[in-house]
Write a structure and sequence with these properties.
Shape: globular
Largest sheet: 2 strands, antiparallel
Radius of gyration: 21 Å
Structural class: mainly alpha
Helix content: over 70%
Strand order of the largest sheet: 1-2
Strand content: 5-15%
Number of strands: 2
Number of helices: 7
Length: 160
């Protein structure tokens, strides 16, 4: 069982098993196991969660619903606690649990894929931080913004 803390500091546990998968699918009409499929369905599922924070939050709520019920926390209240780093932490917990759901042979493969993906993500984050810290980046950005601003202010108005 993996856990994450929401924006208020409360801890939530995510456990992926047949009961939680059925609950998630029933509440969200989304099959989280599709994210480990190859081909179009897998890509579509990953895209749905990565590009739609509301869908991701609904999946997380469904995964934590029994805890929400026990604490008398509504869906809206739970969703309001998800922003920033807690969303990333919750996503990691969900992905780890999905991987752990599978039998050993498939789990080992998925674990390796997740490990490589996280290493690549960390590397990209590090590269981005380096670019943002570079004084030339800010100077070049300011120059480009000034150029864009002057070209848009010099553009002829359209006849209407």
């Amino acid at each position: 069982m993996k856990s994450f803390k929401d924006a208020r500091g409360d801890t939530w546990e995510i456990e992926v098993n047949v009961a939680s998968l059925r609950r998630i699918r029933g509440i969200t009409d989304f099959d989280v196991l599709k994210i480990v499929e190859t081909g179009k369905e897998g890509i579509a599922a990953i895209t749905a969660l990565s590009e739609d924070p509301v869908k991701l939050a609904e999946v997380l709520y469904a995964a934590c619903k029994t805890q929400c019920d026990a604490k008398s926390i509504s869906e809206d209240e739970f969703l309001s606690r998800l922003s920033g780093d807690p969303v990333a932490d919750a996503t990691d917990a969900l992905l780890d649990e999905i991987v752990d759901f599978f039998p050993n042979a498939k789990r080992m493969t998925l674990r390796k894929i997740l490990e490589v993906s996280r290493k690549r993500s960390a590397s990209m984050k590090s590269e981005l931080e380096s670019v943002l810290k570079n004084p030339d980046f800010e100077k070049n950005l300011e120059t480009e913004l000034e150029r864009m601003n002057s070209s848009s202010s010099n553009a002829p108005e359209s006849a209407g």
